């Protein structure tokens, strides 16, 4: 109760907040779910109920909630140097050390020693905006001003600012916002389970997807295409793993047409796939990498853009002629975020959380398959590391989708919350996503799978 206005928090929320990615009408009817505290993989809501958060927030609380080490690092940084910008060559120790550490991690843990510099921002969306601007900048500086378009993929999620929201390939996010902006194209979604032709195996499907990409490039004119952007594993789209050979073939096409490769590791970075980076998991050779979420485990809003030698050389060589690099934000390289990111990386290393993700990956899939694999509406259970998706279909044999307007994954997700487990309903295909903190235990995975199975059982009358 807010004694001043004599209203409950629920009422004040409805009267005062515009919630991101929320139906205004539904929210007005149902009100908020208010969470008050969290520890490890468990959240506590305002009614005192405990829930297992199998989403780690929005795929981001990689080290789990309530880590004193990160709170202490943040508090010490706030007391020492609460703010410093990086404009005009100003700098600060932790931010310098963090940039160096990220370059080292990519070289050592992702086999990608070709990154030259790191640029910091505050969100995954702004990291992708930085990439959007950088590929234009790069081509303008090297005298290729006509090479500007960026190709993304249907089903991709790259954020929701005007530029990153345009790169996002999910129509629900474009509707009534007049997006995508000109100059952004979307090629086919490489999700084999849903989009393969009958009898088409993964290799043939990957070949077709890449042929579609190249046909789009040829149609538009390779001289007009600056970059291709991709998540190593498409997260929000539905946890789509790249088909075998897909990225190797994509890379050949990009090389052939002198097109930059922007890899969006906002979800996959920092252990999610059971390796440090998706770049290493899938042997990618990016020109720019976007990082956020796991960089600080969401204890501070922070993003990083890794910039390759190839781009850096052009920026550096033309610097005197171009003038200053006129891009950046008030909070770029924030000292508190940098201190928390360093403490977060220490924690991931000290506790072996990337290995934990790799070790528990089979457990997560097995726990789900064991408990719900026979359900007639569960079409596919897939994953890599600690990210998994459960895709619903009306008919398993034919993979027929549910009829338009039915959202089985939302129904199951609602029952899951009632059973004490959060499993997100995604906005592109009917998929529930699982991306728990990398610090989760085997027992917690089993407990979450038990609760989720009970939820699916309870949802059956609404699905039939
Ligand atoms: N890129 C990917 C792959 C994401 O999953 C997200 C967020 O979920 C973003 C970018 C956008 O990040 P933010 O919400 O921090 O702007």
From TrEMBL:
Pfam families named among the record's database cross-references: Aminotran_3
Alphabetical list of Gene3D superfamilies matching this protein: Aspartate Aminotransferase, domain 1, Type I PLP-dependent aspartate aminotransferase-like (Major domain)
Record carries keyword Hydrolase: no
UniProt key word Transferase: yes
Membrane-traversing stretches: none
GO molecular function: transaminase activity
Keywords recorded for this protein, A-Z: Aminotransferase, Pyridoxal phosphate, Transferase
Required cofactor(s): pyridoxal 5'-phosphate
Family of the protein in this entry: Belongs to the class-III pyridoxal-phosphate-dependent aminotransferase family.
Descriptive protein name: Aminotransferase
Organism: Ruixingdingia sedimenti
